[in-house]
Design brief:
Distance between the termini: 39 Å
Number of domains: 2
Number of strands: 23
Number of helices: 10
CATH architecture of the largest domain: 3-Layer(aba) Sandwich
Strand order of the largest sheet: 1-2-3-5-4-6-7-10-11-12-13
Organism: Staphylococcus carnosus (strain TM300)
GO molecular function: dipeptidyl-peptidase activity
Structural class: alpha/beta
Strand content: 25-35%
Helix content: 10-25%
Protein name: Xaa-Pro dipeptidyl-peptidase C-terminal domain-containing protein
Pfam families: Peptidase_S15, PepX_C
CATH class of the largest domain: Alpha Beta
Shape: globular
Keywords: Hydrolase
CATH superfamily of the largest domain: Alpha/Beta hydrolase fold, catalytic domain
Length: about 550
Amino acid sequence: MYKQMLGNPKLNVTPIEDIKVGKNNIVVDSIQYGNQEMIMEKDVPVKMKDGAELYVNIFRPNKEGQFPVVMSADTYGKDNKPKITNMGAMWPTLGAIPTSSFTPEESPDPGFWVPNDYVVVKVALRGSAKSKGQLLPWGESEARDYAEVIEWAGEQPWSNGNVGTNGVSYLAVTQWWVASLNPSHLKAMIPWEGLNDMYREAAFHGGIPDTGFFRFWYQGIVARWPETEIEDLEKMQKEHPLFDDYWKGKQANLKNITVPMFVCASWSTQGLHNRGTFEGFKQASSQDKWLKIHGRKEWETYYARESLEMQKDFFDYFLKGEENDWRDNPRVSYEVRESFFKGYTKTASDWPIPGTDYTKLYLDAEDAQLKEKPAEHEGAAVYDSEDENADARFSIEFDKDTEITGNMKLKFDRRGNEVYFPDFNHIENGQVATGWLRVSHRELDQAKSTAAQPWLKHEKEMKLEAGEVVPVEIEILPSGTLFKKGETLTVVVKGSEVVKGSSTPGLDTRYAHRELVNKGNHVIHTGGQYDSHLLVPIIK
């Protein structure tokens, strides 16, 4: 039901610096509804079972009543960072991020939610802001704290007892974790692009240590809270190069999750959020779950009005009990990309998409082509693994329009121009899809692997002898792209990144892999006895 929520333009927006500890009557510059009056409670302490206190900010309607709660939790700081301008100089391609000035980064905007009769609670997890204690990112201890705050919020006089979690990136990671504990007042969740396996999705890619964003991110947390004892993630990355008990402790048990979820994934956050978001949706035991997939920029999409209205409809249904036909939404909706910010939406009943035609395209080193039939003759593509400009390429030109939703690398249009897409951390010269593997990490988990998705154990090193030939399976992360008749798909194999990040160590806002162990030539064997192929998921 529509209700009039337009703000009063005569109201003056409350300056952030005027906010005091305790209860404040404020005016928020809502992007959607104009200047809005609401109540903000700043630095509210919530006592944990072990005696520690976490601090939260609360935004709520300026009227009597009990309302559902939209909550987010992280260690970035619960207080205002208007429009994420602290990152703008490093990431000039963020896109439009329309929020009120009271919106912490990656968090639900009180300017949207409070006028819709929700209470917004922002949690400073242990070790951040006023919440004292050791900061242990992305693990069970954070989840236990988060669960306690959820239970606290569900029992407050302004709460109707129903809490929904929401947020991007770190704020999605903490959702996977807390939902695996199933606190009683948690009734719905919106994890918007967030990893849940720190080893495979952030610290190491295919067993190769990320020397870029993973370390940049950790150093940023240290810089924010210089007086806090923070788990040394750089040290852990160096001391634990294999997937051992330490990394298992950084992996949420997704199968324990039963709460209704509206999940958003993107083709464009490969190397950080892409894989984990799909795994969260697939592995969760929730009966009520929906998946939205886009190929655009992360924050820009999260704060877009269309996305907000979908989030609101989901929460209205599960937190307010409103019958609004939410269940009529398709279980999966996904964008099929054609080019930069150009595509169309399709729907499916599940993910992976039922009825996918997994097709082998065979590598042929003789003419650098991908072919529908294996090459009769053996061949070898060779490149110098230590030369950042050297690679092996295999291409196929499509003779009809072909939708590939699952795996891919580079794409060229019919005029021979490379087609770029939004990619990791909002860069604009991104690839279709990416995959990595340090060949010594090639051991497969046979129980978890499928024909379309190899699952690498990363539990031991299996180094090659000189001249040894071994089969390897490389997980190429999910993507969705339409290749029109006459367009070309190209697979690039090389010993370093195809798209380079910053040339200055310490400013890598995308992934980077500088600690490589490549030696000499890499040889890719094709044809004859070698079943070298790219498995592509073609949607009919």
